[in-house]
Specification:
It is a single chain. The protein is an alpha+beta fold and 257 residues long. Helices cover 60% and strands 11% of the residues. A hairpin with a 5-residue loop joins strand 1 and strand 2. Helix 6 crosses helix 8. The longest helix is centred in the middle third of the chain and has 35 residues.
């Protein structure tokens, strides 16, 4: 009897904990706690705030493909009810994909516009890179808010600097030397982010990195990442500037998924 009561108490406790977790996630402001649809909804709200044309563009991207596919269906489906239903479903699917494509495109642009010019904004672009990339935002920062980010992936070990070009050059040169000492023969690439000559704009940074020549295999990436941990362990934690908020919850939409 006592055992049965203990089992019931344990079951009640587990149910209470599960309900508490559900409530916490429901009221959470952390995107990692949200489901896919809430992520999409919150991303839509933020994007629509900065992009007033978004609802109309999405509506057009849905209606036009839907109408075209449905028209083709009515022409070729004949009078069969099943065929008509299949064409309607296909039209809805194509229209939905069109709307989502516009949403992803405009959401990505809205995020870049929202954070452009803020210290640490390069993190937003690094979050757009595929899963094969491992990025460490703000590995170094100066009192003038010149910032260095790092990412490693198929096209190499890359340091990204953002700030005043004259101050960035020696900062990036110093970080490059440190990384070359632990990377052992791996070429450390350096990029300055910005709108000046020789710099890469925020909204072009992710695509620029992906288009660089492939330089590292998966095994080499893992090896270099292990060595970078030793470098990071020796340096003091860089204070993160007040820049972009954590945009993890919006990645799916911004990447076009």
């Amino acid at each position: 009897m006592a055992k049965s009561e203990r089992a019931k108490a344990l079951e009640a406790k587990q149910k209470a904990e599960a309900q508490a977790l559900k409530e916490r996630k429901k009221n959470s402001t952390d995107p990692s706690d949200w489901g896919r649809w809430r992520q999409m909804l919150e991303t839509y709200k933020v994007t629509a705030k900065y992009d007033k044309a978004l609802p109309w563009l999405m509506l057009g991207a849905f209606v036009i493909p839907f109408a075209l596919v449905l028209t083709l269906g009515l022409v070729f489906a004949g009078t069969g009810a099943l065929q008509i239903v299949m064409w309607v479903v296909l039209a809805l699917s194509v229209g939905f994909l069109g709307a989502m494509a516009i949403f992803a495109w405009r959401a990505r642009n809205a995020v870049y516009k929202r954070f452009e010019g803020q210290a640490g904004s390069g993190e937003v672009a690094l979050q757009m890179l595929p899963k094969k990339w491992t990025s460490d935002p703000v590995i170094a920062v100066t009192k003038n808010m010149d910032v260095v980010h790092r990412t490693i992936g198929p096209t190499g070990l890359i340091l990204i600097g953002e700030g005043e070009p004259g101050r960035l050059r020696p900062l990036l040169a110093s970080e490059k030397r440190k990384h070359e000492q632990v990377a052992y023969g791996v070429d450390v690439k350096v990029i300055q982010m910005g709108d000046k000559s020789g710099q890469v704009p925020l909204d072009k940074l992710a695509s620029h990195i992906k288009k660089l020549p492939k330089a590292l295999t998966d095994d080499k990436i893992s090896e270099v990442k292990q060595r970078l941990r030793a470098l990071d362990a020796m340096r003091p934690k860089a204070p993160i500037p007040k820049g972009p908020i954590n945009a993890k919850g919006a990645r799916a939409a911004m990447r076009g998924r």
